[in-house]
Design goal:
By secondary structure, the protein is of the alpha/beta class. It folds into 2 domains: 3-157, Leucine Aminopeptidase, subunit E, domain 1 (3-Layer(aba) Sandwich), CATH 3.40.220; 167-323, no CATH class. It is built from 14 helices and 6 strands. The protein has helices at 31-40, 42-49, 87-104, 124-141, 160-173, 181-197, 209-220, 223-234, 238-244, 249-257, 265-274, 279-288, 298-308, 314-323, and strands at 3-7, 17-22, 59-63, 71-76, 109-113, 145-150. α11 runs antiparallel to α12 (279-288). It is elongated. The structure holds ligand AR6. Ligand AR6 is lined by residues 9-11, 21-23, 29-33, 35, 77, 113-120, 149, 151-152. The site of ligand AR6 has 24 residues, from β2 and α1.
């Protein structure tokens, strides 16, 4: 998964580089900075002493000493005052310069804490949005696996409005309290069948022979054939599709070359999101892989919430899934 949100202590991450939310002296401090220096040992401080500090928004790289990663990238986030002191641009710059340094040092996996969101006071939901926006933009043009590491889940918040909208949607839909939309589509299908039986001619039922042949061919299609057909129909490139799906390029190649590839449910949904499929089309694609959406689990209801709102931003969906303790989309 190119961008993943995980709950962990960043010093335990076995990645190529971890990012430190440092201060401009680079000589250690509290929060994640303190944890990293303690876990890395004295060698890290000695190397940091040679760096001559670091400007806010900039980043510097060192070795990792006793940590399980290869490098530590030290970046200095802005102290949050009121949001009107260039805080956002400076925070964006932290992510951009850190990612640039990681790339220059051939890192394939990088883990970030939520920079500035602790002692420096940046509101956590806004700090998370900046992180996701900059990292997802970077991943459109670069192959890397980036983790956003959340330490204290209790303090993790998506925006209040989104959280309460989704909670309300879950309350309204959980365990078939209301009519299931699949029940509704079955009812519609039965109605149309009845009309057809009575000889009522509906224009959308007048399939030409070609169209009928197409439909019959699609019945035998595998998941990967269906996916490739949909990519063609949408007129997007493979890369646009797997990047918007938060799917790793190598995995996509595997799916492309293996006609009988069996994807997991989050992978299917990730593609449905990247192809901006309707709920009904999403159901069709899930069915191809042997899955379905249900109103008896939160994951499905959250997916349904985003699709019905026409919000196909996979990273926002993952933020919400993470907030509700669900598995994330992508692979
Ligand atoms: N792993 C992952 N995340 C962590 C960890 C950890 N071990 N520990 C804390 N966090 P902060 P800042 C989270 O205060 O706001 C230092 O003194 C924490 O929950 O570490 O950029 C520096 O020297 C929060 O969400 O960094 C600077 O003076 C996030 O990491 C100043 O603090 C960042 O919190 C920098 O403040």
């Amino acid at each position: 998964m190119p961008l993943e949100i995980v709950r962990n202590d960043i010093t335990k991450m076995t990645v190529d580089a971890i990012v430190n939310a440092a201060n401009s002296s680079l000589l250690g401090g509290g929060g994640v900075d303190g944890c990293i220096h303690r876990a890395a040992g004295k060698g890290l401080l000695n190397e940091c002493r040679t760096l001559g500090g670091c400007e806010t928004g900039d980043a510097k790289i060192t070795g990792a000493y006793n940590l399980p990663c290869k490098y530590v990238i030290h970046t200095v986030g802005p102290v949050y005052k009121d949001g009107k002191h260039n805080e956002e641009a400076l925070l964006e710059s932290c992510y951009k310069t850190s990612l640039k340094l990681a790339k220059e040092n051939n890192c394939e996996t990088v883990a970030f804490p939520l920079i500035s969101s602790g002692i420096y006071g940046y509101p956590k939901d806004e700090a998370l949005k900046v992180a996701i926006d900059v990292i997802s933009d970077f991943l459109l043009h670069n192959d890397m696996t980036v983790y956003i590491v959340i330490f204290d889940k209790e303090a993790y918040r998506i925006s209040e409005k989104l959280f309460s909208d989704i909670s309300e949607y879950i309350d309204d839909n959980y365990v078939e309290k209301h009519m299931d939309y699949r029940f509704e589509s079955r009812r519609m299908a039965a109605m149309m069948f009845e009309e057809e039986r009575k000889g009522i001619c509906r224009s959308e039922m007048l399939f030409s022979e070609d169209l009928l042949e197409d439909k019959l061919r699609q019945i035998d299609e595998s998941f990967s054939q269906m996916l490739l057909r949909k990519i063609d129909e949408k007129g997007i490139t493979d890369a646009e599709c797997y990047k918007k799906a938060n799917i790793d390029r190598k995995l996509f190649s595997k799916i492309r070359s293996d006609v009988s590839y069996k994807p997991s449910k989050p992978t299917v949904i990730a593609f449905a999101i990247s192809l901006e499929l309707s709920l009904e089309e999403t159901e069709d694609m899930l069915k191809k892989a042997g899955f379905a959406l249900s109103h008896s689990n939160k994951f499905d209801i959250i997916i349904e919430y985003f699709i019905s709102k026409g919000n196909y931003n996979i990273f926002e969906i993952n933020e919400a899934l993470f907030a509700f303790d669900q598995s994330l989309l992508g692979a």
